[in-house]
Amino acid sequence: MDVTTLPPVINKRRSAAVVLGLLAAAALTGPAPAAARDEPDETPAEPPKVELVLDVSGSMRARDIDGRSRIDVAQQAFGEVVDALPDGTQLGIRVLGATYPGKDKAQGCRDTQQIVPVGPVDRVRAKAAVATLRPTGFTPVGLALREAAKDLGTGSTARRIVLITDGEDTCAPPDPCEVARELAAQGTRLVVDTLGLAPDEKVRRQLLCIAAATGGTYTAAQSADELTGRIKQLVDRARDTYTATPAQVDGSAACAGAPLLAPGVYTDREKFSEHRWYRVPVRAGQELRASVSLAVDRPVNPDHGVLLRATAPDGRELVRGVDAGSGRTDVVSAGLRWSGAEAEPDGAEPDEAGPTPGASAAAPAVVCLVVSNSLAPRPGTETSPGMPIELTVDVVAASPAPDGPDLGRGWTLLLLLTLAGLLTGLLAGLLTRWWVATWREN
Questions:
Q1: Is 437 contained in some domain?
Q2: Do 219 and 71 belong together in one domain?
Q3: For the chain, what is the domain count?
Q4: What's the pLDDT tens digit per position in 242-300?
Q5: In-domain check, residue 441
Q6: Domain CATH number, residue 266
Q7: Helix 176-185 crosses helix 141-152 at what angle (to 10 degrees)?
Q8: DSSP per residue over 96-138, as a string?
Q9: Over the stretch 324-357, which tens digit does the pLDDT of each residue have?
Q10: Strand (E) positions, 247-301?
Q11: Can you tell me where the transmembrane regions are (predicted)?
């Protein structure tokens, strides 16, 4: 179901809360939830760290991308990406299959080197190092991923690897998908995004597996512009790091039985046109702030989006979020803000089956969050696994809007308008008399 067809919220009091939902959406691309930010932070935030891993095996000689060789297109893309690096980004570059031209598989499957160490980027040095690469040997993807993880090290924020390859691993073991699972199981806060340069089904399945194991994305790049644009997006996304690793959660198909979430950052996957439900306890006098970002990691039809709603357990809508697009084409976001002290929706009776938001300070009410998308795949686009979503949840003390004229009764506003009209008429009359008197004298 297209999210644009869902019924609008009719509670007038919540119109301001819906607008303020934009503020909550910003939390997903920034630090941890507001409750965590209230604590003094004695550790300075780490700079973004990302390593580009480039396949330079013999198959990269193929001339099938805009009439150019795959390595030529990759080198151009790398140069443009390095020139456009965001300030403060720490970048490294690792290659595989770049130095050994022989047929000894044991030796060729050890062929991976870091040609630019992770750190502040010397743009001239980085572009020169990539420009001299020539397609050479085997494809030890699994080993290169394991070494790239070592290059990035560990720390308090997520690291990102961007793997660009045109073929499946020719050296397993280690199997690259198993390496990705191994790294994820170690809690290394590592995300691997994959870019495929060849329309090969086996390669696509392997790269999807690597990305899915680490919460990353897979993209097939079939032109120089697509490759350059996607690498830039992924490097830029490295700035969206967290002081805490997002927790894996599996949303349900309905509110009943949905996972109960505490304040924090969560990651999940959602299929096309799916609804995923979560639950959050909110006490009277507290305010729920939530935001969601969905990574558009495959071709989709335009003019669709993502919707975040808060509902009561019986399905009554409390508030819906608003789109918080930032101009990025690879992520769509929405956010909402709702206070537990708010009344029941207009015309709705209290829920006799259980507590309602704001009904008791002792027992928190359960608010259901539902993430919906109306994205539709383009022909030939793989629909599984689902697209990565990141959900930020926070519960803070309610911050009601400042008092203003009671628009329901309207007497104060009417009196103010009447006085303003009288003063305006008196001033206009005095000015007119002065102008007429001056005109007659002249």
A1: no
A2: yes
A3: 2
A4: 555 678 899 999 999 999 999 988 989 999 989 999 999 998 888 898 988 887 777 78
A5: no
A6: 2.60.120.380
A7: 30
A8: ESSS--SS-HHHHTT-EEEEEEEEE--HHHHHHHHHT----S-
A9: 544 455 677 888 888 865 434 433 333 433 334 4
A10: 247-248, 264-270, 275-282, 286-295
A11: 411-436
| CA angle 193–197–201, rounded 5-degree value | 90
The answer to whether residues 331 and 189 belong to one domain is no
CA distances from 97 to 165, 309, 384 (A): 11, 49, 30
Length of the chain: 442
Are 332 and 306 in contact by the 8 Å Cβ rule? The answer is yes
The token pair that represents 353 in the structure block: 């089956």
Find the domain containing 53 and state its range: 49-237
Residue 347 lies in a domain: yes
Evaluate whether 57 touches 135 at the Cβ level (below 8 Å): yes
Q: Which two tokens stand for residue 85?
A: 């690096």
Does 187 share its domain with 53?
A: yes
Other C-beta atoms lying within 10 Å of the C-beta of residue 425: 10
Q: Is 420 exposed, middle or buried, given 0-12, 13-18 or 19+ CB atoms closer than 10 A?
A: exposed
* 81 and 141 belong to one structural domain: yes
